[in-house]
Amino acid sequence: MNSKIRSYSRAQAAKVTNVNAETIRYYESCGLLQPPARSAGGQRIYIEEHLQRLIFIRRSRELGFTLKEIKDLISLSDSSDRSCSQVRDLSAVHLRSIKAKIRDLKKMEKTLADMIKQCDANTTPTCPIIGALTS
Amino acid sequence: MNSKIRSYSRAQAAKVTNVNAETIRYYESCGLLQPPARSAGGQRIYIEEHLQRLIFIRRSRELGFTLKEIKDLISLSDSSDRSCSQVRDLSAVHLRSIKAKIRDLKKMEKTLADMIKQCDANTTPTCPIIGALTS
DNA sequence: ATAAACCCTGTAGCAACTACAGGGTCAAGT
DNA sequence: ACTTGACCCTGTAGTTGCTACAGGGTTTAT
């Protein structure tokens, strides 16, 4: 009655998470992904946990976080070895940078939405996109 | 009575924009920054326009855009050579990715804010930060 | 049993910086 | 005018974060 754990080859994990198969190996090599179990023939066997972490890493990278920052963020979730105040301080640092990123993206969003509106209205756009992030 | 234009050396531009001095040269070499005027001795002389573009590039990079994407975005602002529908379509593509980034960052923001709240309440945090971007 | 599709390790390439090396420029102080 | 120190120039080499082979072993499906 042991419930079977769904497992994945590297190519399968790559497909599900949308992370390149080579990149998965790279993340393991630099300690971002915990090394998975191996088959008798030495091939990696990934489980759900790995997929979740891979998705988290990919989306964080897309948001401009470095691998070091992502390592930091991941270590927060496994904070048994940290004091509460350490977790609090590290979280606060990242929270500030996240809020700044959201602000900048919203400025860009507004600028682009305005440009689309101008195009739809068929007026000649002056497109001051650079201005969006300099003020 | 000609109003003087404020100009900047590379180191000054680097300091003001918070872009590494070497990186400024790199952006020029790959066509992201328009080449500035030179002094008699051959040294680069930057003006406000360069600083604005540098700040735009830096902040866009921090938001996870590639240099190619940033080139695209910059070219939108100088869209005299494009049809309105081209500008509209390119803007729409970037707008979608920006909205997705905002969504992801807001999930992270909430997770981190919750962790800080838990720490403040002095309860043991379980810190499910990975979960923030996998659902 | 044999082919196709995948995996392994290791290494080499690419993008986007970052940091020299070896020499020239410039501005400030004397 | 001259020196000195901080900066600039070009070119090249190193770093990070991937991405793509090469040469060989494993797995799966027929």
What does this structure look like?
With 135 residues, chain A is mainly α. Chain A has two domains: 1-65, Multidrug-efflux Transporter Regulator, Chain: A, Domain 2 (Orthogonal Bundle), CATH 1.10.1660; 78-135. In chain A, 59% of the residues lie in helices and 6% in strands. The first copy, chain A, contains five helices and three strands. Chain A has helices at 10-17, 21-29, 48-62, 67-77, 84-120, and strands at 7-8, 37-38, 44-47. The first copy, chain A, has a three-stranded antiparallel sheet with strand order 1-3-2. In chain A, a hairpin with a 5-residue loop joins strand 2 and strand 3 (44-47). The first copy, chain A, is flat. Chain A starts with 6 loop residues before the first strand and ends in a 15-residue tail after the last helix. The relative contact order of chain A is 0.08. The model of chain A has no long low-confidence stretch (mean pLDDT 82). Chains A and B meet through helix 3, helix 4 and helix 5 of A and helix 3, helix 4 and helix 5 of B. Chain B binds a DNA duplex (30 and 30 nucleotides) through helix 2.
Tell me what portion of residues of chain A adopts beta-strand conformation.
Answer: 5-15%
The succession of helices and strands of chain A, N to C, reads: EHHEEHHH
Strand line-up in the sheet with most strands of chain A = 1-3-2
How many beta-strand segments of chain A?
3
In short:
The structure is a homodimer of 135-residue chains. The first copy, chain A, has helices at 10-17, 21-29, 48-62, 67-77, 84-120, and strands spanning 7-8, 37-38, 44-47.
